[in-house]
Design brief:
- With 476 residues, the chain is an alpha+beta fold.
- The chain is built from 18 helices and 12 strands.
- The strands form 2 sheets. Strands 1-2-6-3-5-4 form a 6-stranded mixed beta sheet, sandwiched between helices. It has a 6-stranded mixed beta sheet with strand order 9-10-8-11-7-12, sandwiched between helices.
- The two termini are 35 Å apart.
């Protein structure tokens, strides 16, 4: 069954049941007794003559094969043509040298293969899963999707028209545009500020020839990776990979340039972006700052501390804003770690009349992390919780395929998995204090709010210099 790409970030649903279940499991296990001996299964990595990096991993539990392929062709490469990377990734399924769009769908659907193309700020990705017996049929088709797309003009025109409508519709749901507003406000003209789905103005100007050029410039074997995980023998599949992907060549002379090469902004004061939505009855907000890159050696320790602050149902933020004060259905914090930078975010929403109360309380909880730190009991609870969450996440073949491609794109290695338990348990109270001071922001916070401006405009001035936009206005 084909899986269609979801254009815009899905609104995170703070499900009390799932978080509560995880907290019960963590609380019921004495410190140090959560079983987390998981190590990354053995795999083989090699680089083909054309520069393509390949990972192969055997997983024989079920007769399935999972493929994750990624190119460094995300929205950071859009420059001023926002939406170009997104449309290019979608167009990979518009037909290849051997198949029309309809033929691709009919062939893969008949085989029961699930397949997907998508893009985010950093990369374009093609994923698929299918029965072991169909590997010799599906892999050549996937190769054509990745290396031999034809960019059918009629299919492009249809998709572009739909995207223009979707760009209007998304602004009716603040949760669907919050990422775009926050990233643009934080990163400015840097490539990490590019809205993945584009804007009506930029998308309307994109042509099918733009897609072809973007593909030539950015879908390059030497900057791409393919991970294949499943029920096969590495010795056999390795011989086939050269046949499948050996013919993928990049045209000489194409040099990819992007806004990601611009310097990251720095902030010497707090700022507020207020996005006015006249009919809003609630305010959705984010409080944040620059974060970390994915290869940061303290990544796991940071996750432990964030679990306490806002990474689970019984976190400080959710306790204070949801449980104790009844201001919202949920509050959370997280680090969105990217290749060269990232963001730290506190996220929630509340009724319009309680906006300031919720913002004040969120800031107070973040300050509490700095002033009081964490004690041994709180730290042990978070350590048990996070040790119980991570191993199951990477025990599925599809997740392992994605992990391998992420390792290539983001520049980290298997020590993330293999040393995970050691790194979690290595967070002491003193280490926690160091991590909090180094990575969790306290000053020059950046606020982004979507809500009814007439009700909150004057009140939010106390948080910093205010910039106001209309949600129906072009762009972010």
């Amino acid at each position: 069954m084909r899986k269609k790409h979801i254009i815009f970030p899905i609104v995170f649903l703070w499900l009390a049941v799932s978080f509560f279940a995880g907290d019960v499991l963590a609380a019921s296990a004495p410190a140090g007794q959560v079983e987390t001996s998981f190590r990354l299964p053995q795999y083989e990595k090699f680089v083909m003559k054309n520069g393509l990096t390949v990972y192969l991993m055997e997983q024989h539990e079920v007769p399935l094969v999972y493929v994750s392929a990624a190119a460094q062709a995300g929205a950071v490469k859009d420059n001023d043509k926002y939406g170009l990377a997104f449309l290019t990734a979608e167009a990979l399924l518009f037909g290849t040298k051997s198949y029309t769009k309809n033929q691709l769908e009919e062939k893969l659907d008949f085989l029961g293969a699930a397949y997907f193309t998508g893009v985010d700020g950093e990369m374009a990705r093609v994923t698929a899963s299918f029965a072991k017996k169909d590997m010799d049929t599906v892999m050549p088709i996937l190769k054509e999707i990745i290396a031999d797309p034809i960019f059918d003009e009629k299919e492009f025109d249809k998709r572009k028209k739909r995207l223009m409508l979707e760009l209007d519709q998304q602004k009716e749901i603040p949760g669907q545009v919050m990422d775009s507003y926050f990233n643009k406000f934080l990163f400015g003209e840097h490539g990490y500020g590019n809205p993945v789905g584009g804007t009506k103005g930029t998308v309307s100007a994109i042509t099918n020839e733009d897609l072809k050029k973007f593909y030539r410039d950015n879908y390059i074997p030497a900057e791409s990776v393919v991970a294949i995980v499943g029920d096969f023998k590495i010795s056999q599949v390795k011989k086939m990979v050269e046949k499948w992907f050996g013919g993928w060549k990049a045209k000489a002379g194409n040099v990819s340039q992007s806004a990601v090469e611009k310097p990251l902004p720095t902030f010497t004061k707090s700022r507020v972006l207020l996005v006015n939505k006249d009919d809003a009855t609630e305010t959705r907000f984010r409080i944040g700052a620059m974060g970390i890159k994915r290869s940061n050696p303290d990544y796991v320790a940071i996750e432990v501390i964030n679990t306490i602050l806002g990474g689970r149902f019984t976190s400080w933020l959710n306790d204070e804003l949801r449980v104790n004060a009844g201001l919202t259905y949920g509050a959370r914090s997280y680090f969105d770690a990217l290749k060269t930078s990232g963001t730290f975010i506190v996220s929630s929403y509340t009724r319009t009349e309680r906006t300031i109360e919720a913002l004040d309380l969120a800031v107070q909880v973040l300050e509490r992390l700095h002033v009081k730190g964490v004690d041994a009991e709180t730290l042990a609870s978070a350590q048990n919780y996070i040790k119980g969450q991570y191993p199951p996440e990477f025990e599925r073949p599809g997740a392992l395929a994605k992990l391998l491609t992420d390792m290539f794109i983001y520049g980290f290695n298997e020590s993330f998995i293999n040393d995970f338990q050691k790194n979690v348990e290595g967070v002491t109270v003193d280490k926690a204090k160091e991590i909090i001071g180094k990575y969790f922001p306290r000053e020059n916070l950046q606020f982004v709010l979507i809500g009814k401006g007439s009700e909150i405009r004057d009140k939010v001035k106390k948080y910093g210099e205010v910039t106001e936009k209309e949600i129906k206005a072009e762009g972010f």
